[in-house]
From TrEMBL:
Organism: Pseudofulvimonas gallinarii
Family (UniProt): Belongs to the MraZ family.
A GO biological-process term: negative regulation of DNA-templated transcription initiation
Protein name per Swiss-Prot or TrEMBL: Transcriptional regulator MraZ
Quaternary structure annotation from Swiss-Prot or TrEMBL: Forms oligomers.
Length: 148
C-alpha cells in the first residue's frame, strides 16, 4: 500500500506534514486515524501505522506471554508507547515529544513507506543506515531466492 521515501520537515511544535502522495490512501485505508510508536528493533526510528494495521499488530504482541522478559519489553516499546494521532486541517501530524526525543528526530526526518506501515527516521540516522550495504553474512536464504 505505502512505498517510497519522503523528506520531512518537523516544525518547532513537533508537527510534520503528511506527504501529498499518501493523503488519499490514508484517508481510504484508515480514515486518517494513525498510531505512532517506537520501532523496537532500530534506534532513531519510529513506526507509524494505519489504525487497523496497528490493531492487528497490537493484538499479536499482547497475546505474547508476559512471563518472558523479551515479550514484556516488546509490549512496553510497542503497546505502552503507542499514541493515536490524526492530521489537522493542514494535513500535519503531531509527533509525541517523548517519541521524537528518543528517536532524535528534530528538524529533518525521512518517512519511508513499507507497505503496511511507515518508518520515520531522523535524517542523520537514515542517511547513515541507507549508505551502509547489507553485508554478505546477513543475507538469508529467503533473500538469496529473490530474483531482481
Amino acid at each position: 500500500m505505502f512505498q517510497g521515501e519522503s523528506s520531512i520537515s518537523v516544525d518547532d511544535k513537533g508537527r510534520m506534514a503528511i506527504p501529498t502522495a499518501y493523503r488519499e490512501a490514508l484517508s481510504v485505508a484508515c480514515g486518517n486515524c494513525l498510531v505512532f510508536t517506537y520501532n523496537p528493533f532500530d534506534a532513531h526510528c519510529l513506526w507509524l501505522f494505519p489504525v487497523d494495521e496497528w490493531q492487528r499488530v497490537r493484538d499479536q504482541v499482547n497475546a505474547l506471554s508476559s512471563f518472558n522478559p523479551a515479550h514484556r519489553e516488546l509490549k512496553r516499546k510497542l503497546v505502552g508507547a503507542a499514541t493515536h494521532v490524526e492530521p489537522d486541517g493542514q494535513h500535519r501530524l503531531l509527533l509525541p515529544h517523548s517519541l521524537r526525543q528518543t528517536a532524535a528526530i528534530e528538524k529533518r526526518a525521512v518517512l519511508l513507506g513499507l507497505g503496511d506501515k511507515f518508518e520515520l527516521w531522523s535524517e542523520e540516522a537514515h542517511l547513515k543506515r541507507i549508505a551502509t550495504p547489507i553485508s554478505p553474512e546477513d543475507i538469508t536464504a529467503e533473500m538469496q531466492s529473490l530474483n531482481f
